[in-house]
Amino acid sequence: MSQQSSHFAAYQPVKQRYDEYVDIHGSVRHVWQPVRETLDALGAEGLQAASIEVDRLVRESGANFQAPRGRQFVGRPWQLAATPFVMDAAQWRLLQQGLQQRVRVLEAVVQDLLGAQRLFQERIIPASLLSANPFYSRAYHELPCLAKRLTLCATDLAKDQDGSWWVTGDRTRAPSGLGYALENRIITSRVFPKLIHSSNVCRLASFFVRLQSHFSSLARPCLENPHVAILTPGMDSYRYVEDAYLARYLGYTLVQGRDLAVRGNRLTLKTLAGLQPIDVLWRHVSDRKCDPLELEPTSMQGITGLLQTIRAGTVAVVNSIGASLAQMPALVPFLPAAARFLFGEELILPSLATYWCGGARERLYTLEHLEELSIRDAFSVSSKPPMQPREMSAAQVSQLVDRINKNPHLFIAQASPARSTTPVWHDGKMHAWHTALRCFQLQTESDVEIMPGGLVRVSPDALSLDHSPTSGRLGQDCWVVSDTPVDHEISLLPPLHAPLKLVRGGIALPSRVAENLYWLGRSAERAEAIARLLRCTLSRIVGETVSARLPDLPRLVAALAALGQIEPDYAIAEFEAILPALETQLPASVFDQDQAVGLRAGVTDMEEKAAAVHDRISLDAYRIITQVGKHLDYEQTIPDAGMTINRLDGIIGDLLAFSGVASESMTRTHGWRFLQLGRRIERAHQTAELLAATLVNPIQDERQLLESILQATDCLMTYRSRYLLQLQPEATIDLLVNDVSNPRSVAFQLIAINGLLEELPRDVSINHPVEEQHIARDLFQAVEASVPAQLATVSGKKLRSNLDSIVTQLINQLPKLSDAISARYLIHTAPSQELTGRLSGVTT
Fold first, then answer.
1. Are the beta carbons of 448 and 99 closer than 8 angstroms?
2. What is the per-residue pLDDT across 566-579, written as a single tens digit (0 to 9) for each?
3. pTM, to two decimals
4. What is the pLDDT of residue 497?
5. What's the start-to-end Cα distance of the chain, in Å?
6. Residue 709 and residue 654 share a domain
7. How far apart are CA 205 and CA 185, in angstroms?
8. Do 640 and 773 fall into the same domain?
9. Max CA separation in the chain (angstroms)
10. By CB atoms within 10 Å of each CB, which of 62, 84, 206, 244 scores lowest?
């Protein structure tokens, strides 16, 4: 393809910036030649199709979900560009050497700060970097550590005009982005498999194989198959989506602080089957929040007594608590001197010019050059953008100067990096966008391994990339092109013939996970019931004349009002008068984003619960759940009644798909049982509520009402196969209440509930039915003893009193059954504020 027809024909490098695609003479760099040829061969339509496919794979990937409405947590910070960031082998080798050296220097520095402190004694680093650091704790000194404190690190980089790399920041506590880098590679490998192979792009799998192997080796005592867990801050954290993705990919258990407990100097996972020991904890929680007993008392993310288990040597924590000291920005200006003192070496990768204002000269320089510098926190790595004096008003600058003079040790000043540009396909064109690269390093006892790639962020605005580790317009996959053959047979899977003990029953289930699965089942079932009733009601509104639709519509609307879908004012005797308003208001209620109860709230709750067990359900199940909420989105105008019915069809279809996946793909473990318990209890409750609103108080001609009820419960086809067109209350009630062969009946739900309760773990010392079993058995016996003819009989009070009695019992007792299950299995006790092992001397 000629230059004129190439995607790159209109590509314009940014002046005075290093460009990754072309050199200063305008010639295409050698490493980009095969990539360019492949992209050009696709043509504009092909490349756009590839970009669309990338977007689709990102949406469906395990590391991408949208925050349920009202929640704080977020999903993936940026989308993925179809074009990669490409680096040749020679450039990578130089970068690799610099990164390995930097990790060794940072390791030695943090070991010294928490140990002999020679760097303080020799005045290489000012002691006030610890004493003035609000995130420092003396407890860090008392903790025995692994052979290396910094097991997994990350380095943020920028390339200046002459092609030299500069370090813009270090991440030594729990660097984020590793999961996104992995996901980027998996996606681009599916879109450009031949190009990746033919270009000899280094694989990432070897790095993760080494990571898994090293983490396993950290367990004490040495175990053949240690239990490794990822400690996540939780769903409100920007990290949660990535933590869940890594846990799924690596086969680790994703836990939160409340899932864990210290017993007998051992860190354990609280499960329904008892306490399970944790051997290696990969923490993504900040140092001071790891243990509320000895560090930050208000922390809800940590584990009481964790530091005691570290002292006892019964758990390996990665990275070691205190590792965050190596990433404080105030340390940066002292690293070159530290490298010379500790190793007699100059840093291969220099840091951006950084000035700690705690030094008199540095503060003076900062104040004299404010217009040229960015101002940051000296001790923490924040997601907040740096302060830019050049963009501030005179009053704001004056206030900043006062703050610096008052507490100079709390601020650093840093030069803004010159960032290279790279080709990015966006909006149907190839652009030169600025880049930020994050590389990841794994330090073992013997060496430092660098992941051959990294996380790349790109943006047309270079300054925006400095704001935070999640800023930027798009992400890119980083391709390191090897000059030697790449091994494509590396796998994370263990050797085929490795010894393995057969296990059935699934992995241990934490109470938090059981709770979320239970409520996922309830919210999914509730959403389906409301969607069916809405569809039935709207179909009657748009499909019949006024005289034909009035007999049953008031009862259907009353049922919707009881579920909170619509205001009770619409369920009135003078129904015909409000019918025009109802035809508008009912669709509006479906799409109301502020709805506290009803369909939209149920779908949002379902999304939230699914996100909380993102690592415990299949990707297919999760994709289906995320699709449900999209049916409730609209651009400007709320869909009318007819269009709303179409949306409800989509919601019901997706919910049925989720039910099918849960039924056919989930192993019958406790997780499946709690999901099913939620569904069965909610279905029984919804049916009872529907019958209470529609059939307890009879109307003169119930034929249309009976058909609507059967339609709303998905039983119309079954009824007609038995009774054809003869619609009668007795047969309807029998099908919905008493028929044990009907998976929609109350009796069927109660049989299932009793069976599921029998299979849940119980205290072996209890040899009699517990509260929840008593409630479930009593309810089933009441339904079993009821006679459909008697339930359908209208008493002298023009009331089906027997039906009223049974549905009232169900409506009152099912919530008590739910509470009893929660009290026994799902409610977490408050964390103990004492160290069990220390007080009792118990060991395990």
1. yes
2. 877 655 555 666 67
3. 0.85
4. 54
5. 70
6. no
7. 10
8. no
9. 100
10. 206
